[in-house]
Design goal:
By secondary structure, the chain is mainly β. It has two helices and 13 strands; from the N terminus they run E-E-E-E-H-E-E-H-E-E-E-E-E-E-E.
């Protein structure tokens, strides 16, 4: 079973300075301007959160990071905030779309039970954030068998020996097949199947083809 992980990275991206170009299902940032270090928290700066695409509950992960980020502004003491009890309405987030997304998060804070804190807390806030959904797992190519015997003189079709190809991102990876099989000459020939996703992850499988008269 794959272990659920989350990788969180907080940074700042200036609103209007982010331009994303989608090419063949990928997203690349063409212009990012960093906010001045002397004044990192300004009204036109968006927090950046990186979430692993394999995260079981990315909505909760985003909520928790937004609450922690707001605490850095000095609005409240995080020690008195219950992350579990606090709720968030998140719009604009697609967990199936890897890459950069601008998301709106409306948070209703809840305290850990301190009555005085509850009296002072009692409010919600809305925060726009940039979410980078990161795909870390490699695509998979599964063959029907790792070896096959064919008759001399027959036609070899490499694709007919593929059982399935899968990528957790939902985008079909690119398949390439390498290796030559001489169907007119007896012998063993290795054929390599390679799949690549938009993030550059690759997986391979090898089929040994035996040509026999």
């Amino acid at each position: 079973m794959m272990k659920n992980t989350i990788k969180k990275q907080m940074g700042m991206i200036v609103t209007g300075a982010l331009s994303a170009v989608l090419v063949a299902g990928s997203v690349s940032i063409t212009h990012v301007k960093a906010e001045e270090a002397a004044n990192p928290f300004t009204s036109n700066a968006l927090p950046v959160i990186t979430v692993d695409a394999q995260e079981e509950d990315p909505y909760t992960a985003i909520k928790n990071e937004v609450i922690k980020q707001r605490a850095l502004l000095g609005g409240y003491d995080l020690n008195y905030i219950s992350l579990d009890k606090s709720v968030a309405d998140i719009t604009g987030f697609d967990r199936n779309a890897t890459g950069i997304q601008t998301v709106t998060v409306k948070v209703n804070l809840a305290s850990t039970g301190d009555k005085e804190v509850e009296k002072r807390l009692g409010y919600s806030f809305v925060q726009k954030v940039v979410v980078k959904l990161k795909q870390d797992s490699a695509p998979v190519v599964q063959l029907k068998s790792d070896a096959v015997t064919v008759n001399n003189g027959d036609t070899f079709n490499a694709s007919s020996y593929i059982s399935y190809i899968n990528d957790d991102s939902g985008i079909l990876p690119v398949l390439s097949v390498s290796g030559e099989v001489d169907m007119d000459k007896d012998g063993e020939y290795p054929v390599t199947y390679t799949v690549s996703d938009t993030a550059g992850h690759t997986s391979t499988a090898v089929l040994t083809v035996t040509v026999k008269t």
